[in-house]
Specification:
Elements: H1 10-13, H2 19-32, H3 35-50, H4 56-61, H5 63-67, H6 77-85, E1 89-94, H7 102-122, E2 127-130, H8 138-145, H9 152-174, E3 178-181, H10 186-203, E4 210-215, H11 221-235, E5 239-244, H12 249-259, H13 269-285, E6 290-295, H14 299-311, E7 321-326, H15 331-339, E8 344-350, H16 353-369, H17 373-390
Parallel strand pairs: 1-8, 2-3, 3-4, 4-5, 5-6, 6-7, 7-8
Length: 395
Amino acid sequence: MSNIPSFSNTEVAFKSKSTIELKFTRLIFKLMGSPGLVNILTDLTTFALKMRLPVQWIIKKTIFKQFCGGEKINECTGTYELLKKNNIEAILDYSVEGQSLESDFDYVRDELLQLIVNAKKYAKVPTTCLKITGIANFSILEKVSANSQLSEAEKHEYNQVIKRLDSICKKAFDNDVEIYIDAEETWIQVAIDRLAEVMMQKYNGKVAIVFTTLQMYRHDRLEYLQGLIKKTTKQNFVLGAKIVRGAYLEKENERAKNNGYSTPMQPNKSATDNDYNSALKLMVDNIEKVELCAGTHNEDSAKLLCKLMADKGLENSYRGIFFSQLYGMSDNISFNLAHSGYNVSKYLPYGPVRDTLPYLIRRARENTSIAGQMGRELALITKELSRRKAQPTIN
């Protein structure tokens, strides 16, 4: 247990932030600590953007600044380099989703192809990610997931989705860049799972290039993971899996209630935590044929993975295991893990303010719904500001 870092070391956690930046983060987290205020502000923001009111500059200077690297890729350079200086990889994420035009899908594809080239140039373990809804119409994914009959036009449209995804994964394979396919809503996830599996079978021959994502707040994902691991042996490919808790809880439960079906969500947070931790153990137990990205803001899960690695005799820097957190959150976990020699990455989203709004709203609402999340973040920031006040040489 001695190799497990302390996540309470605020000097390490916030060494990349000036005191002014830390106070700004404190303000954002204080605002996000009120669910009622978050709901009002997000609803007002969505309405204002629909009405074409000039509010994007306010968003850009507040929540966008906290959780995104910039609107364009070149605006992310400073943040990217700062993370790299602290031994943290940045996963540049073109955070655009919910497009509807073929031209938009092609634009996102081209942006992702360029991201892969950039990742190869600048990262030690180059990685990028994508949302299938950035390159595919939501409705076509919903139809495929429901096994609905597609028209000839829809078949052609879906074939174009497959071609876009394959071109991205091939580019990643050719450049030895890992690519994470994010999980999305359950009613389109069947199609996403199928696409991810096909790409893993095609491109994960010796190492994991393509990673699928499992949201463990779904009660069926642990069983699905067990099935995937069996497939790796049967079909002779390396499983790449990013394990997360999930980001659509309220939306999922509301849709299930409105449509009269049983929610696919776990009955409570404890069940989610148990399945998440069981998934980590299952992955480490099978580490010879899988690669793992543990996406978590939960200190207990991060500590558990450290222990599982130690028990398995794996070095902190073992190539096949990464810890990952979102940019703007849980720096106490990210920076202390990196300081102790573990592989760590931060998801660094970028994109036009208007197009990243769905992501930003999820971040705000997700954080207010996680018991104690904002309180923990604020307590650590307050602790560090007090430490710096006692040592006034720190800026």
